[in-house]
Specification:
25 helices, about 900 residues, 9-stranded mixed β-sheet, alpha+beta, BirA Bifunctional Protein, domain 2
């Protein structure tokens, strides 16, 4: 076995499969494109699902790549075990309906054992297989010469994630030798495939040969697939003969850099070693994620990023690192991984900037959390308690981002404990809420053998024509090919050519009709790309049937296409405008382009200011007003890149690409339809800007006649406001509104003054109504039509006058009731707390509440119960003293 560096393992893998005629594809972006079921690309196959389930047929059915992945479902194990990571690289090769078990197994064996490649000792290799898959066992024995006692049957060797392709798999294990054996020979887990450290899984070969149907049955897959995965980190640990993945060249430079920031050395202690590993792991993950466009936030993948960053900072504190430090590690990541992932070097400065700001924010959070925790500790002292409840600790963590470790640390300094079990219960409840809200992350579509079999020469003529004659090649109804689509029914038509644009790249499909002469035979409802690229026209037939092999006239709705063109070209200008105003990080992350409106999703830290939105809108309209020609040309992709054309993450481009160039300002690779000149857009108007996820913003806008109609609506509204306010000129409106606001403010001030006088008068009466129970004085009173602020103001007066030991105030407003309970310190010492007293009282108004020992408040929906509530105060005080 050759002691290879990680970069050498990557390259050898790709070179090997390139020799086997595989297309080598680059790693997909970590943020899934057009896949809402996933937060991250979490496996090699995740970015290729459309090929695996037959939705799309690749140009080359044999594919290989090294895919960066993120998984955070078992984050607590990172740094604790030898091989758990949040970010990892998966080396994979795939066959999409091409080769199957024999080639996959023999090639894997060749790559591992051949002297030209990895040169493993074959005696140290073991494999597992699904017991019913005897074919796989025979291939390992007969084609590879693997001894039978190196082949183990394991029931779990069946890859199945729900509906869609599934099948048996075969895992390859490497015997690391006796020095790594952590179990006795007779332990039931001491075998290849068991939970032990000696036999390490290095490669998994999955043979997808069944469709898992919605009814739970397994049907033979129309096109069998191969999907393999080899973790680079663990392969590096094997080839570099180190105990864990963290001692490989992928992590050790980071760990050494961390060591320069602390007096603690890696290898001193298991606990501090864990902190080194967690920091090294997390900084890799967040650097890659930010480089791919993710940004820290309070939800979705942004929340995961923020959590990883904060965990790294907390583990830094355990190593004695109190200053800002994580951004300093980014250049180390770029140095290790930059040759394979150029985005790390290209965006190094941006990644450092984001991390520095996030770490600064967390340090501020820690300070704020310490204030909140000190209040909790003070409250416990007053109550004579010695344990911070799990719910309180979770509240500090969830609301203020204050880590449990810090809560425990500060509590111990004060001689207090933390209910860890209660915290975990609250945390698990949150996880369960997240799980229930999440889609099935791995499912695929069911392969359609009917659609997959349809493959013929097809022409899209819709760039230049909106009408053409075309012949029907295939008709599909209910996933079955038929010769005729009956009248008044729906089906899918495949033509030899079409002017209809199929939904792609955010642009909606054209609508229109199928004609025979002047007679419309069917309405075209939708158009989608088929598995082999031909357009599938979903239609609804009218009075006449439609026949295969017959020619018809296809006509696109001209007005709808024109408005779609306006909106599509406007999105290109909007993209450029956002980069001009916000910066190069404002990258497109999704769009909707239809005849009615446009929607544009992009990466950005936070809400855009009104001034920024105005600048963006002005830029687009400037380009519109200057009547710039929209030049569209096809050219080699290298030429397009040389002229600065922007390519979108997730889009697949061939060797020849279509470039949309607007005045050399906006240059993008795009297959959509556009106006010929920007003046055709008419006008551009932003309707809304909002946040839609972690570091993601959305702009919605109108163009052309839709924008003009909106301007007209706003003008009508403005005139109506002028009429209502009796203002003759629109430029006088602002002055009139300011005048009305001043009048309202003066009136409100007068009302507040009168309310205060009324409350003062009421307090004189209320505070005279003192009653006693068990040598304890109390006042119980109702004040009509007041809010909680008024009750609290009355409570302040009560405290100043020390009118009684307990004050109970109730009020009603419309159909709601409010309740305030105050207790002085002397009474708290006797065992009466405001929070305990308010709970039974609130039941009378069908409400609930709580608070501190000296003050509590509640709300309810039964004002009619107030009098009964007041009458029961004495009894409830007695109950608390009993």
């Amino acid at each position: 076995m050759k002691p290879l560096k990680s970069q050498e393992i990557r390259q050898k893998f790709l070179d090997f499969f390139a020799e086997k005629d595989h297309q080598i594809v680059p790693s997909a972006n970590l943020i899934p494109i057009n896949d809402p079921t996933l937060l991250w690309i979490n496996s090699g196959v995740a970015a290729l699902k459309k090929y695996m389930d037959g939705t799309e047929v690749p140009a080359n059915p044999k594919i290989a790549n090294v895919q960066k992945c993120i998984r955070t479902n078992d984050i607590e194990n990172v740094g604790v075990t030898a091989r758990h990571h949040t970010l990892f690289e998966m080396l994979g090769n795939w066959s999409i309906g091409d080769y199957f078990k024999e080639e996959a197994i023999t090639w894997a064996w060749e790559f591992l054992t051949s002297e030209k490649w990895l040169n493993f000792d074959s005696e140290r290799l073991y494999v597992t297989y699904f017991p019913e898959d005897e074919e796989t066992k025979q291939i390992w024995m007969e084609k590879c010469g693997l001894a039978e006692n190196h082949i183990v049957a394991v029931e779990d060797n069946f890859w199945d994630i729900g509906s869609g392709p599934c099948g048996p798999d075969s895992e390859i294990f490497f015997d690391r030798g006796e020095k790594y054996q952590n179990l006795s020979d007779d332990d039931p887990e001491m075998y290849p495939g068991g939970e032990n450290e000696r036999y390490l899984e290095i490669w998994n070969l999955v043979f997808s040969q069944f469709n898992h149907m919605p009814d739970g049955s397994y049907q033979p897959l129309p096109n069998k697939n191969v999907d393999t995965g080899m973790g680079l980190e663990r392969m590096a640990s094997v080839m570099q003969d180190v105990p864990t993945n963290f001692e490989t060249d992928l992590f050790m430079p980071i760990i050494k850099a961390i060591g320069q920031l602390t007096e603690i050395s890696y290898g001193d202690h298991v606990k501090t070693d864990t902190s080194f590993k967690v920091i090294a792991d997390h900084i890799r993950a967040v650097s890659f994620a930010i480089g791919d466009g993710a940004l820290p936030s309070n939800e979705g993948r942004g929340y995961i990023l923020r959590r990883l960053i904060r965990r790294a900072v907390m583990h830094g504190r355990k190593l004695g690192i109190r200053r800002l430090f994580i951004s300093e590690l980014v250049p180390i990541i770029a140095e290790i991984m930059g040759d394979s992932y150029s985005e790390l070097r290209e965006k190094e400065s941006f990644i450092k900037d984001v991390l520095l700001k996030e770490e600064q924010r967390f340090h501020e959070t820690i300070e704020e959390g310490e204030v909140q925790l000190n209040q909790v500790i003070e409250s416990l002292r007053q109550e004579g308690q010695s344990t911070i409840t799990g719910q309180k600790a979770f509240h500090l963590y969830d609301t203020f981002g204050f880590p449990l470790e810090l809560t425990k640390e500060m509590a111990e300094e004060e001689g207090l404990k933390v209910d860890i079990e209660g915290f975990e219960t609250a945390m698990e409840a949150q996880r369960e809420r997240a799980r229930s809200a999440r889609s099935d992350a791995g499912s695929m579509a069911i392969q359609s053998s009917t659609l997959h079999a349809i493959d013929y020469d097809f022409d899209f003529v819709g760039y230049d024509q909106l009408t053409t004659n075309a012949t029907i090649k295939h008709i599909v109804v209910n996933d079955q090919e038929v010769d005729q689509l009956p009248a008044h029914s729906e089906g899918i038509l495949f033509f030899n050519r079409s002017p209809f644009y199929a939904e792609m790249g955010g642009q909606v499909a054209d609508i229109g009709g199928v004609f025979d002469g002047d007679q419309m035979l069917a309405e075209v409802l939708d158009v989608q790309k088929g598995p082999h690229g031909q357009f599938m026209h979903k239609v609804k037939s009218l009075e006449m049937p439609i026949n295969r092999d017959q020619s018809y006239t296809l006509t696109v709705d001209r007005q709808a296409r024109m408005r779609t063109n306006q909106n599509h070209t406007a999105t290109h200008l909007l993209h450029k405008a956002l980069k001009e105003v916000l910066g190069d990080h404002a990258n497109q992350k999704g769009s909707y382009v239809g005849p009615d409106r446009l929607r544009f999703d992009f990466s950005h830290f936070g809400k855009m200011s009104p001034e920024e939105l105005k600048q963006v809108e002005s830029y687009v309209n400037f380009m519109v007003e200057n009547a710039i020609n929209v030049d569209i040309n096809e050219m080699p992709i290298d030429d397009a890149k040389a002229m600065g054309a922007m390519a979108l993450f997730g889009e697949k481009y061939g060797s020849i690409v279509r470039v949309v160039n607007v005045g050399n300002e906006s240059i993008e690779l795009c297959g959509g339809t556009h106006v010929n000149n920007t003046n055709e857009i008419g006008t551009f108007k932003i309707m809304a800007e909002s946040g839609i996820g972690a570091g993601l913003r959305r702009i919605e806008a109108l163009t052309g006649q839709a924008a003009i109609a909106n301007y007209q609506e706003n003008e009508s509204l403005l005139k109506e406001v002028q009429h209502q306010l009796k203002v003759s000129q629109s430029d006088q409106l602002l002055h009139k509104i300011e005048q009305l606001q001043a009048e309202l403010k003066a009136q409100q001030s007068e009302i507040d003054s009168l309310t205060a006088r009324v409350m003062q008068d009421a307090s004189n009466e209320i505070f005279e109504e003192v009653q006693t129970v068990n040598d304890m004085s109390y006042i119980a009173a109702s004040v009509d039509n007041q809010n909680m602020d008024s009750l609290r103001a009355l409570g302040d007066t009560w405290q100043e006058k020390a009118a009684s030991n307990i004050l109970v105030l109730a009020t009603s407003q419309e159909d709601k009731a409010n309740l305030l309970v105050l207790v002085d310190q002397e009474t708290v010492a006797k065992g009466i707390k405001a929070g305990d007293l308010i709970k039974p009282l609130a039941k009378y108004i069908q409400g609930g509440g709580g608070g501190r020992p000296t003050m509590a408040q509640a709300g309810g929906k039964n004002p009619a119960g107030i009098q009964q509530l007041l009458a029961s105060v004495a009894d409830e005080i007695k109950n608390l003293l009993a």
